[in-house]
Amino acid sequence: MTAEFLMDLDQGMVEYFRDIANEMISRFGISGAEAVARINERYHEAEISAYPDLMCHEFPEYWSYGLYYYPDASGRLPTGDDADDEGLDLAVLRVRPAPVEGSPYWTLGT
């Protein structure tokens, strides 16, 4: 565990999860604290292997979309790949609620 992430991660995976958080910050305009809270809420009980874990086969932006949005009516989420995302309207995607501030998932200040 690190001060920010609740999972047991090696340094490579810490950097990977930081990249996911940075994608959410830049793409969705949320704070770093909220991005980390969303990651912690989703993955706090996950067993993550040493870098490169299987999830590293996708770019961080792929995971950021699923942490921030619900899938559309057909079950699609953006992937971060322009060709794959063609025809997907971000405006119709519902935003997942952030974890409640003050919950254990919020390990960084807002």
Q: Can you characterise this structure?
A:
The longest helix is centred in the N-terminal third of the chain and has 18 residues, at 11-28. Helix 1 (11-28) crosses helix 2 (32-43) and helix 1 packs across helix 3. The chain has helices spanning 11-28, 32-43, 60-68, 82-85. The protein is globular and about 40 Å long. It starts with 10 loop residues before the first helix and ends in a 25-residue tail after the last helix. It contains four helices and no strands. With 110 residues, it is mainly alpha-helical.
Describe what is shown at a glance.
This protein is mainly α and 110 residues long. Helices cover 39% and strands 0% of the residues. The mean pLDDT is 94.
How would the blueprint of this fold be written?
Layout: H1 11-28, H2 32-43, H3 60-68, H4 82-85
- Could you name the ranges where pLDDT drops below 50 across 5 or more consecutive residues? none
Proportion of strand residues: under 5%
Biggest sheet overview: none
Mean pLDDT: 94
Helicity, as a percent range: 25-40%
Q: Give the helices and strands as they follow along the chain.
A: HHHH
Count of DSSP H/I helices: 4
| Rg estimate, integer Å | 14 Å
First-to-last CA distance: 20 Å
> Would you count the extended β strands for me?
0
Give the helix/strand class: mainly alpha
Shape: globular
- Oligomeric form: single chain
Features:
single chain; 110 residues; mainly alpha; 4 helices; 39% helix; 0% strand
